[in-house]
Amino acid sequence: MAEFKIAVMEGDGIGPEIVAEGLKVLAEIAAKFNHTFNYEKVYVGGCAIDMFDEPLPQSQVDTILKCDALFFGSVGGPKWDNLPQEKKPETGLLGIRKALGAFANLRPAKVFDELVNASTLKPEVVKGIDILVVRELTGGIYFGQPKGVFEENGKKKGLNTMVYYEDEIRRIVKLAFELAMQRRKKLTSVDKANVLDVSQFWRDIVNDVAQDYPDVEYNHLLVDNAAMQLVRDPKKFDVIVTGNIFGDILSDEASMLTGSIGMLASSSVGGKVGMFEPIHGSAPDIVGLGIANPIAQIESAAMMLKYGLKLDKEAETIEKAVDLVLKMGYRTPDIMSDGTKKVNTTQMGDLIAKAVGDVA
Ligand code: IPM
Ligand code: MG
User: Fold this and answer.
1) What pLDDT score was predicted for residue 259?
2) What is d(CA 239, CA 65) in angstroms, rounded to the nearest whole number?
3) Fewer Cβ in 10 A, N or C end of the chain?
4) All residues at 6 or more sequence positions from 149 whose CB lies less than 8 Å from its CB, including other chains
5) 308 alpha carbon – ligand 1 mean position (Å)
6) Binding site membership of 12 for ligand 1 (Cβ less than 6 Å)
């Protein structure tokens, strides 16, 4: 039995709807395993702009830094799209990642056997996929300087810069090799070394770090080739390590192999406090309809228990509960197929919470 303080950021769009389901499941875990989860509500992104006129108020960062983990919904929406870059909700998201020092974004893409038919790819291509995308999260072109829109000799230009320091590459690559050791011991590093100097630098460092992990079979892929291989034969991937922007793109692609982006969670770790969130966005098109799939948020709760609070058994219990409910045939509309039972957001949350009781 233990006591934890968890910062909860519901956020924008469907965030509040699905975070509520995550908390429902966590309450069940707390009851079963005799833990106490104390929650601190925090605001980042659009909701923070509405309340404080900025996407990441320092007061919110301070509160989060005093917690054991950050359980995060989603940010953004059309309402804030026309604000200047530094005021956009997404700037709050990047800011909190940076403020926490969460340099490693773990994005597992695993196909649930029950959902092989929900993928747009053929079942024989996707069955058994189990990929972990390890995305560098606090460097690269997302943060590099200089950036902005400038005027040069009477001509305007837009500019971002892809920067990686050696230590930033080493720490993420090392972590990826460590994770590969706990899995199937295969690692693919993705870059654009045929064009970008920063990518060749990345590749050289991967080769160096690899010396310490002789048991891991590793290779390099150019990002365009990796994008292609991921749909051609996704099963051959185990751990993929890559920089911020390539990881952003490839993790969306990997998620869709599994049928729905609404199923996948992520952890952003390596810093003072870990952050756990679905990989999907705020889905403004379905807000308030009660049809959002809460499973990614619930799986984020499982990742928070595992990587943030070191409660492995509890995390496994949530994963088993999700499996069980899918096996029983319950589906939100995004993952429906013939012969399954359609449920809404809260019903899915209720079913999984109840299943926690049954499998624990
Ligand atoms: C993600 C999202 C974010 C990113 C956006 C919302 C800033 O796409 O977490 O993948 O690009 O990192
Ligand atoms: Mg993304």
Assistant:
1) 80
2) 29
3) N
4) 156, 157, 158, 159
5) 21
6) no
Residue with CA closest to ligand 1 atom 10: 248
- pLDDT above 90 covers a percentage of the chain that reads 92
Kindly write down the DSSP assignment for every residue of 214-256, as one continuous string: TTSEEEEEEHHHHHHHHHH-GGG-SEEEE-HHHHHHHHHHHHH
Query: What are the structure tokens assigned to 113, written together?
Result: 């056997």
Number of residues assigned to the chain = 360
Secondary structure of residue 35 in the 3-state scheme: coil
- Active-site residue, from 113, 224, 312, 358: 224
Whether residue 316 has pLDDT greater than 90: yes
CA distance 24 to 311: 17
Report, as an integer, the average pLDDT of 132-149: 97
Domains of the chain: 1-108+259-360 (3.40.718.10), 130-256 (3.40.718.10)
The yes-or-no verdict on residue 181 having pLDDT over 90 is yes
Q: Is the pTM of this model over 0.90?
A: yes
10 Å Cβ neighbour count for 109?
27
320 given a catalytic annotation: no
